[in-house]
Biotin-protein ligase (Xanthomarina gelatinilytica), 243 residues
Amino acid sequence: MRIIKLNAIDSTNSYLKQLSMEEALVDNTIVVANYQTQGRGQMGTVWQSEGSKNLMFSVLKDVSWLHADKGFYISMVTALSIIKALERFSIPKLRIKWPNDILSENMKVCGILIENVIKQNQLNSTIIGIGLNVNQTGFSNLPKASSLRLISGQVFVLDELMLEIVAQLTEYVDALKAGKYQEIKHAYEKLLFRKDKPSTFKDAEGSMFSGFIKSVSNSGNLQVLLEDNVVKEFDLKEISLLY
Ligand code: BTN
């Protein structure tokens, strides 16, 4: 493991990606920053985080052994690692909002941005970016966001949380390498927010529809049971879960 600590950077994911192209990095190279000036979220969004109060870090993992069609398993093991780590800090009611937002008591406390590095048409390594709201106490323009401190009343040491997440990630990636696909998927599905509950979605055109979340496919598509009793798969660009 190698930990690179920075005060301020545009984005820990971008920094680690650039570094991985310039030099050969050891597995588990971590970049952590107090402040990000251009923190990036999923689907081209901006990740806002009050600097030094929250965790913002990226981990490089060698995944050259993973078949490209199993790419979503990286997302699954990351979400599971964060949940396992947060459980150790007694954070209550943890769930995964598809594809990989981490909720506690129905509020988003953590976001994940995974960027795979493909070399010669093959999965080579992955950069796992994690933004965890830890000690921040106000989210004025983000009504669905919260922090570990707001939920538990406790103040946390950022490094302790990071090292626990990284330790869990190592264990889960080892399980993935050992081929424990079914166990991983089962554990992920068990923690899915609103699984088997009547839910409302919005499609890309803005129309709303209802259904029941049943499962995810190997490629990470959400499988939803619709009103006409048919299960349909959607990818991240096609739908968002409203409630
Ligand atoms: C999301 O929920 O949209 C994903 C947010 C991911 C944020 C983290 S913070 C550390 C790393 N560096 C980035 O620029 N983004 C990720």
Remarks:
- The mean pLDDT is 95.
